[in-house]
Amino acid sequence: MSKTTVINTIKYLTGFYYLVLTLMGLGVCLAVALFFFVLQDLPQVPEPLSRIIETPATEIIAGSGERILVLGGKEFIPLDRVSPYFVRAVVATEDHRFWEHHGVDKLRTLKALWITLFEPGKIQGASTITQQLAKNLFFSFKRSYKRKFDELLVALQIESRYSKNDILQAYMNQIPFGVGAHGIENAAQTFFGKSASDLSLSEAALLAGLPKSPTHYNPYLHFERAKARQQIVLGRMVAVGAISRAEADAAYQSSLLFQPYSTGARTGSYFIDAVIQRLEETYGPEVVYHGGLKITTTLDPQMQRWAVDSVKDGMEALDNIMGLNNKGADGNGDGGERPQTALVAVETNTGAVKALIGGRNYAASEYNRAIKNHRLPGSGFKPFLYYTAFDKLNLHPASVFEDQPVQIAIPGAGDWQPQNFSMKFEGPMILKQAFIHSVNTVAAQLVELTGPEAVITSAKHFGITSPLEPVYSIALGTSAVSPLEMASSFATFATNGVRHKPFFISRVEDATGRILEEHIVRGERHLDPACVYQVVNMMQGVVDEGTARMVRQMGFTLTAAGKTGTTNQYKDAWFTGFTPTLSTSVWVGYDKERGLRDANRVGITGSRGATPIWVDFMMKAMAGEPSREFSKPPNIHIENVDATTGKKASYFTKMPVNVVLKDGQVLKKIWQ
Amino acid sequence: MHWTEPKNFSEWAQRFFSARTLVMSMLLLVLVISELRFDWMEQTLGSFLVSTNATRPESGAIWEIGKQTRTAHQAIEKIVTDRRTSYREAENATSFKQIAATIQPEEWLLVPPDLFRKLYLELPPEVAQEIISSFELLELINNRDWERTYFEKDGGGLNIYMLDKENRVLKRLPISPDLLYMMAYSDVAFGKKLEEFPIFEDRIYSADIFFHVLKGLTPEVRDGVIRRPEHLLRVPGNIVRVGISDETISGFIQIGFEIESGAQQMVIREQGHEWAVWRLHSLLESEK
After folding, report:
1. Which of A311, A54, A68, A268 is nearest to A174 (CA)?
2. Domain A74-259 has CATH 1.10.3810.10
3. In chain A, which residues have their Cβ closer than 8 Å to the Cβ of B160?
4. Among A559, A608, A631, B116, which is least packed, fewest CB within 10 Å?
């Protein structure tokens, strides 16, 4: 090598040396300038750091006093009440040099910077636990270099002001784990039903893996992913010497006992959604989520659990009937693939909603079909029609009508020619028989006499709140209603016409117990009790011997009344029934325009699709209840009549039918 | 100082290993190593930031939550304060009309049964009977289920619910705006006729004649006879007869208006100026 070459090399090296020095100097100047630039916008750090949990929790409580959900607030626990396994797992996974650095892990940051700059497509994170805490407390999740710089500065301040234990404690009390769980105590209770101090290595490792992406690793929905993440956490713990390989293997192999998702973590979630929606409308979201309210609801948790079980079992049975289990349809993911359902149970003499299911799987679809899904009720609407006919036309259950082809002229449209479900005509029959067997032609004759407007007025008095179209076909349930409306309006039958508006919230208090709201149980009477009782008696006939006789066949023996409903092409299957104390409506159908048909392509009616769920639920809900009769108004009497002539039954009448008559309503004598 | 490029290798070496360069490099190295070892830069920055903490803005997610919490508490405080104010005003109320005035639309008031009883007893018996019969009230008090009274505004009127301890309604008493108005107006006698007031004896005229004669008077006289026509306008039903008292008290004469409203009958007494009423009375007598 010549001397000139050496000199040139030295020259270049020296030049490079000074260049580096100059760049470093510029970098420092730039950093100082940037520091003072961002300083003015840098957020203030709260004192003390535990202020992060000062948001009071809004508690939602069941009618029984059981706490069913906590909104907003966080349960702060000191570090010594957290399982050491979890502490080690979090540190090993998120920031294994946590105890050594001063807010920034420089080596990790340089490595991450290198990867980000020189390995296209790869982004390496290097946030320490302190930086993550700073981010969670102050910054949005939008990625930007300025945000990262701000986050870094706040992390430095936190490290200078607080001890490592304080930082770790604050971090663990605010990290999100998914399914509404924030903070380790909340997460331990939600997922495993135990305190954070009692978490095993296996449980701690699973939970420590969730904050990276709570939705992606949600163990209720993606168990395999959560297990894979747990394995990574355990691997990290082994790598940093927190546990041995044998301990990690044992923890990975050990089984995890989760709290049930639907009944533990979010009991009655559709119900709670309805409660929260109503509260937000009244008080605004800020008061609901940050006001520390105590909300006493009408929910009966045991009844709700039974409703969940009944819906689950009933829908699985329906899947079998429909042959869906052999097709590998995903019942959880796509509501269009399998039929959906809704169930609402309302206390008849108050209107309190005791149980509510808005779909077959809340986790898969939060759409509340019990309240928001307005579907055609089919024959389930006929009780309102018959009431109207009794009230307005002084007809009674023994009035005789002819089951025959009917043609009603509709101005501006073609004639309406309703058909019976059986496609047959049975000739003369009393109204009770027509009702029990859901004869459409007789219903059409009645609505022609009463007019659709009168039926709408009655339906509204019973508790239907959806807009109803004043058309003749309303008699056959061609205006959509929700299961909540059906349960609530049928409850009005059980109380002899006293209507109680359905409600979910009994009382709202603030954090200090001051009452903000109380529900007043007030009934409104706009209906004639005698006419109501006449219809109730006919609805008992539906359960005892009519389209819903499955209720008795399945062994439900208490006094009950109800009405099935099935719509065109079997798109909706309903059964709404009630005892003197509880009214329950069950709807089954597809979210999409599609009929319910069994494996042999035979349509599924309300009796076959919805009634079994109703019976299963009511048998549990009413177990141990004494047998009660529907209360009779004073001005009525019961007679046995002939089913076709409506004449008073004699000794020789075959299968007489008992009917309720108002005082003054007389029957034809047998010889008339 | 002029910088010149070294001419040879030894000059380069001399400069490269000069004391100044070595000291600077050592200093730089010490700075870097000490930073890596002791994190002094982070600590210095952190301490500086701690010292400026109080001057920086309360911004960011945690402060937003704090603000929302404050807003929520303020909203709750307002609800509670409003309700307490209404409750205190209700406690001091002397009429149902005052109760109605204390309740904001969409609001309600829960008070002990005693307050209802107090206000009920303040009413003239005829008016009180219009709300609930004394016997029925006595029955409610005696069966001891009545725990609280719930007042709720209903348009211009008032709904009163007597509640048991489970908040079930034992009795609902609707008070129409007209009844509420008339409650405050003490000179209303429900279910009475003019003949039942001796002061109007022999001085009772049909409403048609009364208003026909009144129409013929000057506006000043008309205003002197019926000083507050809005009182009469608010009363439901029709005025069928009018009685004029023969007594003058402090320059005023009482005029009784017999009103029929459906099946209900009542007499409302107003005060007219003596000079105007005498003028009217003389004309009415001449019309007889």
Report:
1. A54
2. yes
3. none
4. A631
